[in-house]
Amino acid sequence: MLAEGAVTRILIADDEAPARARLRDLLDECRPEFALAIVDEARNGREALEVVNRERVDVALLDIRMPEMDGLEAARHIAGMAQPPSIIFTTAFDAYAIKAFEVNAIDYLLKPIRRERLLAALRKSRGGSPVSRDALDAAANQPRRHLSVHDRGRIHLVPIADVLYLRAELKYVTVRTAEREHVVEESLTRLEEEFEKAFVRVHRNCLVARSAIAGFERTAGESESGWVVVIRATGEKLPVSRRQSGVVKQFR
Amino acid sequence: MAKWESVASINQTGATIRLPNFCNLGVMLRSLVIVNVLIAAAAVVRTGSYTDFAFEFVTLAALAEPVLLASLLALCAGRRWLHAIGYVPALAALAVFEVAAAWVVTQALGSLIPDRRAESFFNVAFVTLFATGCTLAYFDLRARALTPALAEARIQALQARIRPHFLYNSINAVLGLMRSEPRRAERALEDMADLFRVLMADNRTLAPIADEIELTRQYLAIESLRLGDRLKIAWRLERMPADALVPPLILQPLVENAVYHGIEPSQEGGEIAIEVAREGPEVAVTLTNPFPGEGRHAAGNRMAVANIRERLQLHFDAEASMKAEVRDGVYRTAIRLPYITAAS
């Protein structure tokens, strides 16, 4: 929620230069009726996150189809912030995304965008609450390529490909990479659903990346199934629960 | 356009479609298979044991094969004349020719085969006409089955081609340029008009490949507006036979796929290489683009490829082919089709 009369700070994210130029022109035309400032422009989702980390942004205009990181993934990372900017998606045509947005009540603008529609969307963003993380997750049809760690208002990205395992602690999930550990506010069950292709559950509280499994070892005591999974790169040994002991056979 | 119609006889709708193009390799092969199956069937009926069957089959084949080959040659050489006189007179002419050929062959070769009476004239005429009837009936049914498919393919072509993604993004790009670079915006609209004129035209007849190349250039000019430096294009047309006839929209949709899957998902972009070369009796069209190997596949793209494959088959049957492969991060599509010109 912004104070009445405050200048709305806007980020434009689109990979096509003419599309960005068009949005600049339109925003200029909205100025007499709506106090706004263009903070910066980004060519993909990753650059958009960099801008959000660097500057205060009130509204992010995100194109859906962008290289490196698409608008939907960028929005999912942004939505985890303590005070996220409002997000307005833009798209020329994406049958899947449009349907998903309708179902989950997410705002979007169709390119070519009309000044009136843009203005209406900007006004709505001032009043409404930002779109929820759950709605964005439901609208996405593919897993994210990064997990986002939120640290003092900044978004730090951890590529999924670098993650060795995910372990649920009391209220959060620990993300283990070869270099270090991060903490994310996610549910392990949801992560399991999203990354079912790349990760496998070895224990009630642990998902291991299939590519990170070096092998399994027999052990006495510490594991209820009698097996531990050995993690490549770190050599750590994590217990396999009796219920998940079928995993061992899968990999042998 | 009229000049190509005899070449593209398979693609005409209505009554003219019924006599197939016997110069086409696929049609010849099908005829050979049908007639040989009939010979085998006749041999089974006339004999009891396996050894007798083999002998009978060889004997009958020795008589039938020269008639068949002579008929196919005559049908290929005389196809323009046969088309001109209409279907029923063409059948009558064919029947007379075949019975005559069959009689000559049995008289000439019949006496060479030992221990065997010459076949009666009635038998020879009946068997020849029966085989001809079966073959032509097959082609007639096939043509009837394919005619609606062709109309369907055309509708599909329209739907697959005017891709919403391209249309709206292009309009948006032109709007974005209008104030800062009005000349480029004008140029882009002209290119779009040309492109859509071809997209909406009746594309059932073959057209020179040079036209297709020009169309693809216009398409790429529009995409360059949006993608800027990310889109690099290498044309290799030194060995292109500009007069070769190809089904329209055989290259542009593939290049559109290459842009969508190969260039757009990458921030750095990449190069699309297009090569057209004559290789003996064939024209080879080769397209390569980077393959980032990720991203969702739009249904429209698979449809475009299936559509091109189908039209190649309708026009050239077994003589044209389309292959796609991924190697070392490069997606390569290769089309081979017979080299046909308006003069041939």
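Residues 1-16 of chain B have pLDDT under 50 and may be disordered.
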